[in-house]
Amino acid sequence: MKNKKAVILLSGGLDSATTLYFAKAQGFKCFCLIFDYGQRHRKEIESAIKIAKKANCQYQVLKINLPWKGSALLDKKSQLPITNYQLPITIPVTYVPARNIIFLSFALSYAETIKAEAIFIGAHTQDYPGYPDCRDEFYQAFRKVISLGTKAGVEHRKIEIKTPLINKTKAQIVKLGEKLAVPFALTWSCYQGSRRPCGRCQSCYFRQKGFIEAGLKDPLLNNIFGGETSEY
User: Which residues contact 1 (CB under 8 A, 6 or more apart)?
Assistant: First the structure.
C-alpha cells in the first residue's frame, strides 16, 4: 500500500523541520515546498534543502517576487528588532504581509495536482499576537477555503491542513524534535544570514529559550542570555 502524500512547507527553521519529521513518522510520503521569496538571506533556503535531503524527501524551491516588500525580512534597509525577552504585543516589523496565505495557496495548488491528502505547516500560537496568520482560527478558515474553492473540495477529496505544533510551546517542539531525531544542527532560525546566529534577535532568543526549558543543548547556540553564540 502506497503512503499517503503530503506537501510540507519547509522554511529551514526548527518548527518546519520538526513538522516534516512528524509527517514522516505519521507515514506520509512528503513533498517539501521551499520558498525563495526575497528574504534577506539565502541561509534558511540552504538549510531547508539540507533538511529535505537528510530526510530523503523530494523538494522544490519556488521563487516568488514580492516587490512591494512591507517587511524587515524583505527590506535590507530596515533594521531588524533586537529581542526584549518578551512576546510582542503588536505585529512586529518582521511580519511579511499575508505570507502564510500566499504559501498555503501555492501548497494547495501543488497538493491538488499531485493528489496529496494533506498540507503540513509548522505554525504555533506562541507566535501570536505577533503573527496573526499563526492562529488556529486562521487555519480553520483556510480549511473552509479548500472545501469551497477547489476541485478536490467540490468532489469531496479532502485535503487537510495539518498544524501539529499549533498549541505547543517552543520547549515542547524541541522535545518532539529530539524524539523524532530532527537534525537540529541543519536548521536555521536567526533573522540574520551570517555564518553563525546573531544570538540577539527574537527568533534566536525564543529558540534558545525553548532548548533551555527542554533541558537540551542547541547545537547552534550557547546560552544567549550570556550574550554568546557558538560557531555554526
Answer: none
CA distance 104 to 111: 10
Burial 13-39 (b: 16+ CB within 10 A, else e): bbbbbbbbbbbbeeebebbbbbbebbb
Q: CB atoms < 10 A from the CB of 69, how many? A: 15
The pTM for the full model equals 0.88
For 69, left (φ over 0), alpha (ψ -120 to 50), or beta? left
Domains of the chain: residue spans and CATH? 4-169 (3.40.50.620)
Q: Which of 75, 83, 79, 65 is nearest to 189 (CA)?
A: 83
Quickly state the pLDDT bin for 222 (edges 50, 70, 90): low
pLDDT, one tens digit per residue, over 102-126 is 999 999 999 999 999 999 999 987 7
Secondary element (H or E) of residue 14: helix 14-25
Distance between CA atoms of residues 205 and 130, nearest Å: 15
**Across-strand partners of 119?**
7, 161
CA–chain centroid gap for 118, Å, is: 16
Q: For the chain, first and last CA: distance in Å?
A: 41
Q: Distance between CA atoms of 97 and 199, rounded to whole angstroms?
A: 25
CA dihedral 183, 125, 170, 205 (to 10 degrees): 100
Q: Can you tell me the mean pLDDT for 144-165?
A: 92
